[in-house]
Backbone:
């Protein structure tokens, strides 16, 4: 075990982030030994705010390529390891404490540390959606970013799975930016990977261009280079689109297609449960929701995880199904399990009283 601190360069690319950059930099106090800020064309006070935290503020002419900007930022780093964040990310107090412990204890043989990335919190400030990202990388390995948009860091070597979380608190300012960059790439005739196609599908979906999104997602699924987690996400999004379009057969097709790529995930089981619930097929719905409660959660799942599907949601839906079937004791049982996850949820508390009134002698 290494007993001396590693040194860390924090590298960020920013543009018009005056509302968020101080929150981010304040949250990492004590973690980085130097801060590298690369500005890609701010017209607000972002650079002036950044200069209060570091002397290393650089300009980078924006060329519609996030990977190039991040690689430029990495090239300015001088410390043992590089940490990257976006201006609308934070490292919360408890995670900051864990990060400082990690900094003191990290084995110098480790090349990469990946961390959970919290994308959404529910109304009780519990994690609702998360995935994992490679966050801390050894500078001497000269890892590079790839991809004009939705860029990724290509890594190898010894990887550590950390429980230190980064939390995303941002609001997307320019909803057309990513799609515009992708369209520019296509006009240039640049080859598109399965990953590119998947993210183009996501952009089209966010713009509610459903039929174009379906076409692109299906094309992405045909690419051999598409990562399994992206294949699963594509199936989930296709099922969601077909649910919206009320094309039930196609919805069901892509829910089951997900099983070609991995063992059942709770997200798909819950979607199947809802599919049969909406059709009044309560026994079939119970089967899928019950399966969701029995699945072993992937320990280091890198893809997006909907935490409700792995915890309280299938139980509250089982409660509903059993209530519809008149099995109030099982309905009450599953409502109580859901209450263990969400003890203050007014819907669950209402159910508790409702079933206790029914079941009382």
Residues:
């Amino acid at each position: 075990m290494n007993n001396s601190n590693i040194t860390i360069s924090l590298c960020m690319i920013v543009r018009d982030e005056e509302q968020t950059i101080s929150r981010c930099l304040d949250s990492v106090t004590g973690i980085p030994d130097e801060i590298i800020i690369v500005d890609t064309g701010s017209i607000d006070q972002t650079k002036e705010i950044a200069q209060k935290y570091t002397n290393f503020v650089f300009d980078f002419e924006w060329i519609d390529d996030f990977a190039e900007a991040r690689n430029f930022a990495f090239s300015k780093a001088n410390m043992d390891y590089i940490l990257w964040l976006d201006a609308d990310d934070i490292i919360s107090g408890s995670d900051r404490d864990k990060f400082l412990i990690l900094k003191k204890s990290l084995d110098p043989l480790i090349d990469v540390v990946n961390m959970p990335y919290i994308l959404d919190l529910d109304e009780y400030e519990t994690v609702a959606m998360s995935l994992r990202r490679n966050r801390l990388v050894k500078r001497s390995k000269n890892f590079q970013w790839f991809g004009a948009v939705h860029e990724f860091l290509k890594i190898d070597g010894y990887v550590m799975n950390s429980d230190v979380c980064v939390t995303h608190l941002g609001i997307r300012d320019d909803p057309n930016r990513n799609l515009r960059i992708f369209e520019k790439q296509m006009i240039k005739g640049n080859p598109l990977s399965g990953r590119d196609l998947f993210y183009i599908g996501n952009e089209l979906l966010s713009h509610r261009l459903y039929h174009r999104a379906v076409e692109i997602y299906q094309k992405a699924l045909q690419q051999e280079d598409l990562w399994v987690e992206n294949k699963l996400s594509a199936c989930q999004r296709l099922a969601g689109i077909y649910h919206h379009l009320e094309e039930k057969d196609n919805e069901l097709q892509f829910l089951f297609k997900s099983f070609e790529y991995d063992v059942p995930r709770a997200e798909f089981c819950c979607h199947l449960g809802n599919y049969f619930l909406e059709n009044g097929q309560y026994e079939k719905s119970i089967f899928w929701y019950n399966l969701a409660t029995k699945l072993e959660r992937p320990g280091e799942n890198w893809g997006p995880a909907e935490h409700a599907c792995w915890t309280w949601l299938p139980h509250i839906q089982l409660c509903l199904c059993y209530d519809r079937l008149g099995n109030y004791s099982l309905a009450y049982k599953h409502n109580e399990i859901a209450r263990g996850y969400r003890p203050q949820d007014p819907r669950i508390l209402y159910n508790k009283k409702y079933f206790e009134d029914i079941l009382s002698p």
User: Anything to note?
Assistant: The chain has a mean pLDDT of 93.
